Amino acid sequence: MGFPAVRLRRLRRNATLRRMVRETRVTADNLILPMFVRPGEGIRNPIPSMPGHFQYSVDTLTEAAKEAADAGVPAIMLFGIPEAKDPSGGEAARVDGVVCEAVRAVKEACPGLCVITDVCLCEYTDHGHCGVLAENRDGNPDVDNDATLGVLVEEALAHAQAGADIVAPSDMMDGRVGAIRAALDARGLHEVAIMAYSAKFASAFYGPFRDAAESPPAFGDRASYQMPAPNAREAMRELELDVAEGADIVMVKPALAYLDIIQRAAQRFDVPIAAYNVSGEFSMVKAAALQGWLNERETALEMLTAIRRAGAGLILTYWAVEAARWLERA
Ligand code: PBG
Question: What is the CATH superfamily name and number for domain 24-329?
Fold first, then answer.
């Protein structure tokens, strides 16, 4: 049977029919808001490349987290910008560090808000790489995988002990999920979940974030630890290993240029799939919207819908608060 008996436009005639046959829904339940916290008080430094986003101090962050929760956003992801940086990122593991302070403050002010912490060293090292450096076999400085694991474990433990619901390692070291799981369990922190940045690609789309988190690498790039963009099968191995090591949630990042990876991950693994709608994806729409070249709301919701349609149940997005409000009225 074909045209004229078949007419697909029949079910597109009005909003009610379209609503009834809608295959993919984005709701506030799917959204996680990334936030940046630095030492100090009363701080709300605008991030120039990410209009509407700020580096907060613990007090202002707590207020903003409350607003997000009131808008219906179930979770935030915390990134810390420390007082001081050093070669091994020692500040990252401090129980009185800014992320731990923020976790305690937010959990006290909004107990129902899920607090996730990014576990990585790039904001804490003076060279901006995601781990401790050593000379590799080529005689070049490179991140030493196994030496980094110990610091990451300490950082994850500090966040968990401060009250984080979920820790999210984003460094891309081999074996870190297993190491963090074992350390959490050994300390009775078996209720703390791990959301692994499993398929994290070396991407130009992280540019604005590195300004926000003050974490660009001082030399070279992250290609020796983050994944190469062309490799989908390798991404499946990364996901598989993290699931085997005990990841409760696995993430694909960035989202939009990697929808095929999200789709394959969702088809293959029965754990919740998260996708990170990264800073560059946000900033390019913001910039175009400020020029009047794109409608921000429609573009953002279309992007979030595409990420959901590909199979992500959780979306980290800088639009989380606006999107929660837009969707409520949709
Ligand atoms: C590393 C980290 C990065 C992002 C999240 N965690 C940046 C990087 O790898 O350089 C990027 C997030 C974004 O672009 O929104 N701690």
Answer: Aldolase class I (3.20.20.70)
pLDDT digits (tens, 9 = 90+) for 205-245: 999 999 899 989 999 999 999 999 999 999 999 999 999 99
DSSP labels for 206-256?
GHHHHHHTT---SSS-STTTSBPTT-HHHHHHHHHHHHHHT-SEEEEESSG
In the annotation, is 286 catalytic? Answer: no
Ligand 1 centroid to residue 272 C-alpha, Å: 20
- Amino acid 329: pLDDT: 67
**170: CA distance to ligand 1 center in Å?**
8
What is the chain's length?
330
How do beta strands 133-135 and 141-143 pair? antiparallel
Residue type, 56: Y
Q: Cβ distance 152 to 176 under 8 Å?
A: yes
- Domain spans, the chain: 24-329
Model confidence pLDDT, tens digit, residues 313-325: 999 999 999 999 9
Q: 324 CA to middle of ligand 1, Å?
A: 23
Please give the DSSP secondary-structure letter assigned to residue 172: -
Is 57 within 8 Å of 63 (Cβ atoms)?
A: no
Question: Which two tokens mark 111?
Answer: 């107990």
35-44 in b/e form (b: 16+ CB < 10 A) is bbbbeeeebe
Q: List, chain by chain if needed, residues with CB within 6 Å of any ligand 1 atom.
A: 118, 120, 122, 170, 206, 209-210, 222, 278-279
**pLDDT value of position 133:** 97
Instruction: Give one word for 175, left, alpha or beta, with left for phi > 0 and alpha for psi -120 to 50.
Output: left
Q: Which DSSP string corresponds to 86-122?
A: BTT-GGGG-TTSHHHHHHHHHHHH-TTSEEEEEE-ST
